[in-house]
Design brief:
About 10% of the residues lie in helices and about 35% in strands. The protein has four helices and 32 strands. Strand 1 and strand 2 form a beta hairpin. The protein starts with a helix and ends in a 20-residue tail after the last strand.
Length: about 575
């Protein structure tokens, strides 16, 4: 009896500790027009709460986040909580026409979800059109109050949001590209926390500054919110120690340069151990494809307290934009912190094997039109030769829950329709391979099944590194490399012990990556390229994860205020 009482007391104490450390974090997002001045001109943008970037949300693991969104902009809108698992809350994931219809102008919707099993840096952004160019912000998840980091706590943590800026209305930029069938205009600047920095015209006083105390250690939470460019980041004379990526802890990795793809986050520790002075932090593009790109640099200043000189800050040495070797070395050397907080071991039994080709394609130009893509066609993109098209009359999740036909089909292929020499540059304009049909297809998965995917890049049009983002799950990155994936030899190099855990993986240019995840969350979940230029072209698909056999593995019905199409 005494043993039972003791066990009960321990259980109640544990429950009380869990309840005490969880809270409801409530925010209101008013989305409206905002006029800002950048690069010598005033520009009307869409923004949250009159802020660009939008507000930073801080919560703890175990908290419930409630965000009331009022759309007072002229555009349809949704908010995606990038990297949040959304366990049994798929209705709050946010991609338009996948888990919800958009919030129409003048309407509102409340996103409500629990933050479970995650610590670190994530972010939120619009998931309609190109609105995320200005509608975005950091989402920082601290450990529970009775837990700590797996490293010495920093003196301060600071979001570093890397973005892109257009001297134009970004919705018009996208629509113009889609109307002509060609590539949209490139951005005019990169930004650090919304500021372009003093490399650009009229930007001397629009340079981000981070004041530091000599001897202190800081955590920089680096987020690539740029639409279409991967970015190298560095700080003059300061090494960075990577301790987490995509809100998953890593083994400490010391580096002079960090690569972040759109959608990815990287937490680094820096110690202010240099002579008191000022030092540039800077970001410049990693451009893996032989196509035009905005080859400029954004920079901010790391300013030591007590430094009063007017001397120019020191500039970091950043890689050449074509430096694939440095990019791959950084991305492939990261490993997970096995056994650390929120670590999930690699599932060893695989139920579903998929081989998914990714790349840019062509679509036939409509009769009587002139298109600006190659060979007078429209630019397109696909996975396994299926070019994804969003529905418009109902969200895919609603169609799944209510068994509505005609919205999508459940026949996304496990393999491409034909085998070919995927990364051979000679297939760049092979007219027998390069056209992909438009479709809205999902791959159905049993609850709790384990899925392994070979993501195989292709050489269509331009060989390029594609950052692939999976909604609703983290995945283990088992291996990555160049050329065509070799199932016999490359599988021997799988890291099944301490691979990095991510929600977005840059598939190497002219190469492949193998990922594995457990489908333990019912709902409809997108997987797509996070270069936003490629998403409307069709570089996407979705998984439909079935309910489990218990109430705790069954998706609840939608909230009453779920927007209607």
């Amino acid at each position: 009896m005494a043993r039972f009482v003791f066990a009960l007391a321990c259980a109640l104490a544990l429950l009380a500790s869990s309840v005490a450390s969880a809270a409801i974090v409530e925010q209101s997002f008013n989305v409206n027009n905002l006029t800002v001045t950048r690069l010598c001109q005033n520009q009307l943008i869409t923004a949250v709460n009159g802020q660009y970037p939008g507000p930073t949300i801080r919560a703890r693991e175990g908290d419930t986040l409630v965000v009331h969104v009022l759309n007072q902009s002229p555009y349809n809108l949704t908010i995606h909580w990038h990297g949040i698992f959304q366990i049994l809350s798929a209705w709050a994931d946010g991609p338009a026409y996948v888990t919800q219809c958009p919030i129409l102008p003048g309407n509102n919707y409340t996103y409500r979800f629990n933050i479970t099993g995650q610590e670190g840096t994530l972010w939120w952004h619009a998931h309609v059109s190109w609105l995320r160019a200005t509608v975005y912000g950091a989402l920082i998840i601290h450990p529970r109050s009775n837990r700590s980091y797996p490293f010495a706590a920093p003196f301060q943590d600071v979001p570093i949001m890397l973005g892109e800026w257009w001297n134009a209305n970004v919705v018009d930029v996208e629509n113009q590209g889609l109307a002509t069938g060609g590539a949209p205009n490139n951005s005019d600047a990169y930004t650090i926390n919304g500021l372009p920095g003093d490399f650009y015209n009229c930007s001397q006083n629009q340079t981000y500054k981070l004041n530091v105390v000599r001897g202190k250690t800081y955590m920089l939470r680096i987020i690539n919110a740029a639409l279409n460019n991967q970015l190298f980041f560095g700080i003059a004379k300061h090494n960075m120690t990577v301790v987490a990526v995509d809100a998953s802890y890593t083994k400490p990795y010391v580096t002079e340069v960090v690569l972040v793809a759109p959608g990815q986050t990287t937490d680094v520790l820096i110690t202010a151990n240099q002579p008191v002075g000022s030092y540039y932090m800077a970001a410049t593009p990693y451009a893996s494809a032989a196509i035009p790109f905005p080859n400029t640099t954004t920079r901010g200043v790391l300013l030591y307290n007590g430094y009063n000189s007017s001397s120019a800050p020191l500039m970091p040495a950043l890689p050449n934009p074509r430096d694939t070797s440095t990019a791959h070395r950084f991305s492939s050397n990261l490993t997970g912190l096995a056994g650390g907080p929120q670590w999930v071991p690699v599932p060893l039994q695989v139920d579903e094997h998929m081989f998914v080709t990714i790349g840019v394609n062509l679509d036939v130009c409509a009769e009587g039109m002139t298109c600006q893509g190659p060979l007078n066609n429209r630019l397109s993109a696909s996975m396994n030769n299926e070019s994804f098209q969003l529905p418009t009359t109902l969200s895919m999740l609603e169609a799944s829950v209510y068994n509505v036909s005609g919205i999508y089909t459940a026949d996304f292929p496990d393999n491409p329709p034909v085998e070919f020499d995927y990364t051979n540059a000679n297939i760049s304009l092979d007219l027998n391979l390069i056209f992909a049909p438009k479709s809205t297809k999902v791959k159905k998965l049993k609850y709790n099944s384990t899925v392994e995917i070979v993501l195989q890049n292709t050489a269509f049009l331009a060989i390029e590194n594609h950052p692939i983002h999976l909604h609703g799950f983290n995945f283990h990155v088992l291996a990555q490399g160049f050329g065509n994936y070799d199932s016999v030899n490359d599988s021997k190099n799988f890291n099944l012990v301490d691979p990095q855990l991510r929600n977005t993986i840059g598939v190497p240019v002219g190469g492949w990556a193998v990922i594995r995840f457990q489908a333990n969350n019912p709902g409809v979940w997108m997987m797509h390229c996070h270069l936003d230029v490629h998403l409307p072209w069709g570089l996407a698909m979705a998984f439909e994860v079935e309910n489990g056999s218990t109430p705790s593995s069954t998706l609840p019905p939608p909230p009453l205020d779920l927007p209607k199409c």
